[in-house]
Fold this sequence. Notes:
Layout: H1 2-110, E1 118-130, E2 133-143, E3 150-162, E4 165-170, E5 181-185, E6 188-196, E7 201-212, E8 218-223
Antiparallel strand pairs: 1-2, 2-6, 3-4, 3-5, 3-7, 7-8
Amino acid sequence: MQYRVIRERSVWRGRLLWLGAFAALAVIGGAGFLWGVSAAQSQIRQNAELRDEVRELSLQNTLLQSRLTDSELIIDTQNHTSIALRDELTQLHTTNAGLETELGFFRKIMVPGETDQGIHVERMNVAAAAESIFVIEATLIQVAERPSIVSGSVTLEIEGTRNGEAVRLTTTELGGSPAALDFRFRYFQALEQTVELPTEFTPNRIKVAVIGKKGTPVEAEFVWPA
């Protein structure tokens, strides 16, 4: 009888151990399940928060891009305006310089005393019309207290080199058109003559001789192109 009692106790002990193990596993499994549910819910909340943050950032990005576009348009408009203003200012300076030149031109004519009286070669201009063909323009003015009509002729002489040697050619030798430059004016007159230079000729200077019917001849010299 003593041996059987000990054996029954052993069986119940084993069963209790198994039940304890199952219970522990159940507790652990339940805890794990609850932890997993909690973690999943936390992750879902985080994902929702991240989605909200992404939407907010996307909205801010759209607003910033809109502002950037507006700023770029403003800057572009300001740049165009600045360029236009600079161009206008340059044009005004150019116009002002031209007016100053014209004013000086007429001051010499209308305010005698600042310039020696008589006929002057005020301007000389040379422009290429075609290959080896040039248009020469000379502007004459008369400075006098009481200007009267003056008349006469103008001759042009071009200095240069040909085959390494110094050469002087008159517009008559160059077939100038018109052949003669005659003037008749009271205040000023522009004369124009077209010449064709030899291909081997290199011009350096141009001389102008104004021969009036009265008074002393006037000569002037300009660097080519004038």
